[in-house]
Design a protein that fits this description.
- It is a single chain.
- Strands 1-7-6-2-5-3-4 form a seven-stranded mixed beta sheet, with helices on both faces.
- It has eight helices and seven strands, in the order H-H-E-E-H-E-H-E-H-E-H-E-H-E-H.
- The longest helix has 20 residues.
- It is globular, with a radius of gyration of 18 Å.
- Helix content is 35%, strand content 15%.
- The chain has one domain: Glycerol-3-phosphate (1)-acyltransferase (3-Layer(aba) Sandwich), CATH 3.40.1130.
- The protein is α/β, with parallel strands linked by helices.
- 37% of the residues are buried.
């Protein structure tokens, strides 16, 4: 018994996205912080569709990507986040305030699929971090197929984002400098359509998920592309110069 992992708090599974008006308000607060305490440069804002449904995907290296996604996308987001872990209080309060759709990172639960599908069918912008967890070394990893599956179910297009430039913002603040953050927006693509045959569908899940991650990799500086650094299939999606 003493070797069992600690049980996560029940509130994690009961949380839901907050009312749209509150998410608009919180986005305004995040924008205010972004304009005063840091410098956030959004590249390619013109690629963001005016309306949904839309699945927004991005890299996940640290705690900064969710607020950066909210900053970048000019609509209230419904965000999928881990519902199978205990969040530290330093992050839990923000997650609780903005709300999210809890998901199991190893497999989509029916309740997660229902909530995400309902949001997309109502024209929402749905935020997903396909790596299903933060990378401790700022290196992009292969993703999970959730975005592909939801695109197949709902016909929603996928919009890739790449976030970088924030490896040590605390150092900049200590030196009385505003840290520089970069958000690069790719072009929407999809939707995906999966075969009925289970063997073919398994291959398609893998191929399409790599296609999603390659588009994210193309929006990151080379030193952060990780698994996809030497992947020649990233090249067609390169859109921005990197210093």
């Amino acid at each position: 018994m003493e070797n069992q992992p600690p049980k996560k708090n029940s509130w994690v599974e009961t949380i839901r996205p907050r009312p749209v008006w509150l998410r608009w308000l919180l986005r305004g607060i995040i924008h205010l912080i972004g304009h005063t305490a840091m410098t956030v440069t959004v590249h390619g804002r013109e690629h963001i569709p005016a309306s949904g449904p839309l699945i927004v995907v991005a890299n996940h290296f640290s705690i900064w990507e969710p607020p950066l996604m909210i900053y970048t996308i000019p609509k209230p987001l419904s965000i999928l986040a881990a519902g199978d872990m205990d969040w530290p209080w330093t992050q839990a309060w923000a997650l609780y305030l903005y709300g999210y759709i809890p998901t199991n990172r190893d497999s989509f639960k029916p309740s997660t699929i229902r909530q995400a599908r309902r949001a997309l069918e109502n024209g929402a912008f749905l935020g997903i971090f396909p790596e299903a967890g933060m990378s401790p070394n700022y290196q992009l990893r292969p993703g999970k197929p959730g975005a592909v599956y939801l695109s197949h179910l709902t016909g929603a297009k996928i919009l890739p984002l790449g976030f970088s430039g924030y490896e040590d913002p605390a150092r900049d603040w200590r030196q009385l400098r505003r840290p520089r953050f970069h958000a690069r927006v790719g072009k929407p693509f999809g939707p995906f359509s999966l075969s009925e045959d289970s063997t073919a569908k398994k291959r398609e899940f893998e191929a399409y998920t790599h296609a999603v991650m390659r588009r994210i990799a193309a929006l990151l500086p080379p030193q952060h592309r990780g698994y996809y650094l030497d992947d020649p299939a990233v090249a067609p999606y390169l859109m921005y110069p990197f210093d």
